[in-house]
Amino acid sequence: MNTHSESQELGKAFVVSRDQDTWRLARNALRDASYVPEHLPHTDGIDKLAARLKPAIVVLDESALDADTDAPTACRSIRELPDCEHIPVLLVADGERDFDEVYAVDVTSVVTKPLDDEEFVGTIRSLVDTERTLSGIRALRPAGGTMLEAVPDAFFVVGKCGEVRQYLGGAADDFILSPMGLQGSNVNEVWPADTARLFIDGVRRAIRTRDGHSLKLELERDGDKREYEVRLLVQGRDRVLTIFRDISTTPVQDASSSRGPEGQASLIDDDAFLSTLDEAVADARMRERGLAVMCIDIDRFEQINESLGEAVGNTVLTVSAQRIQRCLRIYDRLARVEDSDDASLTRLGNHEFVLMLGNIESRDDISTVASRINEAFDEPIAIDDHKLNVTPSIGIAQFPLDGSDAAGLLKNARVALDEARTTSPQGHEFYSNTMRFRALNRFDVKDELRWAIDNEQLAIHYLPRIDLQTGHVAGLEALLRWIHPLRGSVPLAEVIPLAEATGLIFAIGEWVIRSACKQAQAWHEEYGNVPPVSVNLSQQEFTRDDLPRLVGNALRDTGLPPGKLELELTESMLMRNRQADATIRELDKLGVGIVLDDFGQGHSSVVHLTELPIKALKIDRAFVEHTREPGKQQAICAAVIAMSRELGISVIAEGVESELQVEFLKERGCDAVQGFLFTEPLPPENVPGFLSACAEVADESRVIDLTTVRRKIASKALS
Hints:
The protein is an alpha/beta fold. The protein is built from 27 helices and 26 strands.
């Protein structure tokens, strides 16, 4: 979709300012929200421009006013412009003072100079969120009319004490709400005390926070009850636009009551969902309201289904649906086939859910729901004797930014889902145009990666780590390599995310563990005592429930002594996985060593480390990199080394690239180092030569002599 067209659809935003910094900040924030900023250096001619362009938002810098025009007068003039009665107006004032006069003419918000960039941008975003709902009034008002005829929602302007100052129109036939009779009254006079108090508290909260707010009210007349969703949008210091919607005809259906005959969560079927989504898009277009589509994929589902059976897989999907349902906003409902609610959930794929969220006021609303869904899966799913760690990935597309119809929104939400599975640290991603190009590239590479697994294009190289006391090789880190026939060696940083996104990580991970064990045992049989081989685990591999069994089978089948295998996991993985402690202890029972990689980035508890069977810590390369000169990084490295020695844990420095770093680390008591200073990762056939060269030099000199090591390796290669 053309970006310019999208922005025109959302509207123009006037920025009246002579200050370039104010214009720059406002312009960038408005563009991010897909509005088209229009720069006006002064207010001259704004009436004609407003009549032609119909601004959605006005940002007025007080410094742009003439000497004979004060801020209240200018703001009142803007409010009197055609179709500007309800749009957000932000005043940028020259300094702190009493702004009662400004708020009296219904300025939405005021910020003062000097501007705080973050606060100013946040205020702009808040105005944008409000405008998208207020614009519905303009869209629904008949040309030249003053009332919103035949609209199911009722619109009022109210004050902070509950006085209904103006009825704008809508829901004229609602005899319980009786909107025409509310104008000029106070809700304390016409509603029950509890209901009035709830409403006024909501109004005051919206005014206090300057953010949109929602609540539910129940009203009764002559024995007939109705429930209303009320949305509150701040227009000034004591002026709030309230929108009442009757939701009595769309009853809430919670997870406990939405179970089918087989215990499954009752989900709307595919055709009905698509039909509902089409209707929702049409409604959102008419009302100029936001709508979002989420594609939610249950990670690791194929592995669960294959290893534990279809019955367990179905239960995982049922529980997943229920957890997602519980994360909906208070005014979202799970749609049944006959409903037309704001949020509906369906399954369009084997393990992919699609969630529709209506009445979206801001991107933050969507992020809140997505975060709740991610957090809902923090606890494992308990099925019989199994505790399954399941995580969702979420792709999000918004109407009208990312699609003008149901098919386009679903398509782009799936593109965002692919991005979330591949690269997202927070587990959810919003669609952007650049994603499609990356997705097309990944689509080709995914097929190639599957082909590479089947055709033995994957290989393992080994990066030695050097014992700083003896000079011998203390370990060999197994590093995956994809040797592509055309692209050459594909970077590991590209292979692993792709493998995780496609579910191939489990097949690849198992292959790496078995291949490393097999190679280590072959060296052990041919050369005698060799250092242990260490294998890096990805997040998905570490959370698989059968990891100890997989490792145990690899050791048994290859005959490798457990002490010759180490498994490396990052500090952040240890902190994110609730079952990490139990998994580590099971692996320790097998006799394998556990190495904590990238230490220093995850802020894990030292007390926690003392409770786990950790063999070694690897200092994150970001700290090692800057140890060549005195400073904080040297202090951090020295502290980690000292702490590790006190705990009886070996410490390894990675990313070592200079002899100055080696000298510093050795002086501080670091046990071992690895990095390209010594050698690049070696193919299996070159490892024995490096091991023997290091051993010979160490036996001769008892010091680390890199020049002699390299010379000996070269001579062995030539011979």
